[in-house]
Design a protein that fits this description.
With 362 residues, the protein is of the alpha/beta class. It has 2 domains: 190 residues, Isopropylmalate Dehydrogenase, CATH 3.40.718.10; 165 residues, Isopropylmalate Dehydrogenase (3-Layer(aba) Sandwich). The protein is 40% helix and 19% strand. It contains 12 helices and 14 strands. The strands form 3 sheets. A 10-stranded mixed beta sheet has the order 2-1-3-12-11-4-5-10-8-9, with helices on both faces. Strands 6-7 form a two-stranded antiparallel ribbon. Helix 7 links the parallel strand 8 and strand 9. Bound molecules: 3-isopropylmalic acid and magnesium ion.
């Protein structure tokens, strides 16, 4: 088994280092190889996703990814910006199924901006389609308008599109995931306005007939955004397109207290996956040793479960994380009065200690 390690930019290097320490202490047999990605790769090789990095990612069984991006690259032409690295990896590896679980740990109920009773026990799974939609649809660009409200004016455009197989496969992923949970899927669309999402809704409904044991409902994205803060526990599995999923998963992250807690997995049809925290590179706190490494550590657990077939090791990481939270250890993003503030490294140490202690005491 081989893991490609791509720490990236900003806090990426700090948090991935902690996840690697956690993986090492589990004493599993796998090989790791690191490479530059994002702004770091641009600095060294002139491209955010160099050929060598892409090759390493393609050949590995799994990719452990930190984060990319920094404001200082905002002025670069789009194809050279750090974000292109993650988009390129998704596209080239065919990582169409993005799992973003939003779990509110009991100890973090007070870290959320929502009332405790709304989020205590929250456990939802957002399944975001990741290689289609307006993110990748062609054509796109800038031109002179020939029609519309201002013919002759400069305009920009992107294309929202989905093909039948793209919608079918993500719908299957959602129904199958729901079977392992409470057998409910909410498909989020904008069928009242967009042709693409009427098509989406029709296909999800069709695929749903193959899963009579799973309850399916449909919700418009604006209403879903509202329901997520009004009654988030009503959701179980949420399946949606690339752009709506981007937005709703950030919203769902905040329900859990901090985006610093949210892992994610992006899988292709052969279960090869890229695992990354749902948060970004946070250049404002990079290098300060204060970032929360738990989302990355939990992403490593997802990697063990989904791509490396090591479910027991994944369980051990997840229970170690619960243990450190129960001990009252908190990085700044999840800190609240009465708990102990720790840095990135100390949080990693605590997770490692929780795992080793469990090994000794069985
Ligand atoms: C995410 C991020 C990315 C996205 C960016 C960095 C391209 O926001 O993974 O949610 O929009 O998908
Ligand atoms: Mg996002």
């Amino acid at each position: 088994m081989k893991i490609a390690v791509l720490p990236g930019d900003g806090i990426g290097t700090e948090i991935v280092a902690e996840a690697l320490r956690v993986l090492e202490v589990l004493d599993l047999s796998f090989e790791t190889e690191s490479a530059l990605v994002g702004g770091a790769a641009y600095e060294a090789h002139g491209h955010p996703l160099p050929e060598s990095t892409l090759k390493l990612a393609k050949e590995a069984d799994a990719v452990l990814f930190g984060a990319v991006g920094d404001w200082k690259y905002d002025k670069l032409e789009r194809s050279l910006r750090p974000e292109q690295a993650i988009l390129g990896l998704r596209k080239n590896l065919g990582l169409f199924a993005n799992f973003r679980p939003a779990i509110c740990y009991e100890q973090l109920v007070d870290a959320s901006s929502l009332k405790p009773e709304l989020i205590a026990g929250l456990d939802i799974l957002i399944i975001r389609e990741l290689t289609g939609d307006i993110y990748f649809g062609q054509p796109r660009g800038r031109r002179t308008a020939v029609d519309g409200h201002f013919p002759g004016a400069e305009e920009a455009f992107d294309t929202m599109r989905y093909s039948r197989p793209e919608v079918e496969r993500i719908a299957h992923v959602a129904f199958q995931a729901a079977r392992k949970r409470s057998k409910r899927v909410t498909s989020v669309d904008k069928a009242n306005v967009l042709e693409t999402f009427q098509f989406w809704k029709d296909i999800v409904t069709e695929v749903g007939k193959e899963y009579p044991d799973v309850e399916l409902d449909h919700m418009y994205v604006d209403n879903a955004a509202m329901q997520l803060v009004k009654a988030p526990k009503k959701f179980d599995v949420v399946v949606t397109g690339n752009m709506f999923g981007d937005i709703l998963s950030d919203e769902a992250a905040m329900l859990t207290g901090s985006i610093g807690m949210l892992p994610s997995a992006s899988l292709n049809s052969s279960n090869q996956g890229l695992y990354e925290p749902s948060h970004g590179s946070a250049p404002d706190i990079a290098g300060k040793g204060v970032a929360n490494p738990l989302a990355t550590i939990l992403s490593a657990a997802m990697m063990l479960r989904f791509s490396l077939n090591q479910p027991e090791a994944a369980d051990r990481i997840e229970s170690a994380v619960k243990h450190v939270l129960a001990q009252g250890l908190r990085t700044a993003d999840i800190w609240s009065a009465g708990t102990t503030k720790v840095g990135t490294r100390e949080m990693g140490d605590a997770v490692v200690a929780a795992i080793t202690k469990k090994t000794i005491t069985g």
